Request: fold
Amino acid sequence: MDSYTHFTSTRGLRVFKLSELEKATENFSSSRYIGGGDFGADIFKGVIKDGNKTNIHILVYRITRAPTRKAKSDDEWARELTKQVSAIDDRPNLARVVGYCATRYKKKGHVEPVRFIVEEDACNGNLHDYLHKERHQPLSWAKRLSILRDVARGLAYFHDELDNKILSFKSSNILLDQLDGNLNAKLSGYSMATLGSFDDHLMDITRFYASYEAPELLIRGEVTSSSNVWSYGIFILEVITGKNPSDKNLHRKLKKLWSSDRSKLVKMIDPKLKGNYSVESAMALAALAADHCLQEEPNQRPRMSEVLAMVSTMAETSEN
Reply:
């Protein structure tokens, strides 16, 4: 597969050649493949060098879905990507987009468009692995509250400042990095939320993660900022219980206990914490999830800015 065309300049973003990304990912080797994303994107880990010849770990989102008549041109797509990235302005809770590539494959006698978004990979892996894989030390209660606050900050900024929503929300999209000696959580893959598809009207529902997604999305295909608030409610449960959201009864179990016997809620807290947590903040988080984020009707859920205010109070209390 040969490169057919690519951009040569843009503001603030590196424009990659296809050959550079092939080298970075060992020709998109299966050993570098880490999963799928929105709009049929495939995600690969890679390594590139900056101007000082320093290695930078990256995530490469490869988007190969065929465009329609309404598809944006490569130039339009690149301009929108650049505009979005410049609006983010190095927010500490959003992973940094470092560049892109818009090119063509020559494949079986015809030219096939392909686009790539290149994002910097955090040095400490993703939250899903910390919560569900034994190779990591369990996260303390204070760190879990801090991560919940970081993610709420990222979502609130995306909703309120950029008027966008995140399509794919899951703990493996939460990258962990070091900031001033503390573990910092960053939303990854957010650029795919609005800029992944060739066509604004195309959404690949099969790529959504049913464990996190709101009822209106799964039933009617509606994606709003309120849908993200539901996902955040599921995320709260994942963080405080250590259970994978693939347990579809998790939020139902919480709601049942919350309405009938709250004293048993402590049995849902992640046993890896060995009792080292604040019962008061655990109950407050359960209330935030059950009474607010996980409301069936979207208009009954709070805005992410309101959720952030509540979680921030809990996190600040745990730090004092």
In short: The domain at 14-120 is CATH 3.30.200.20 (Phosphorylase Kinase; domain 1). The radius of gyration is 20 Å. The chain has two domains: 14-120, 127-319.
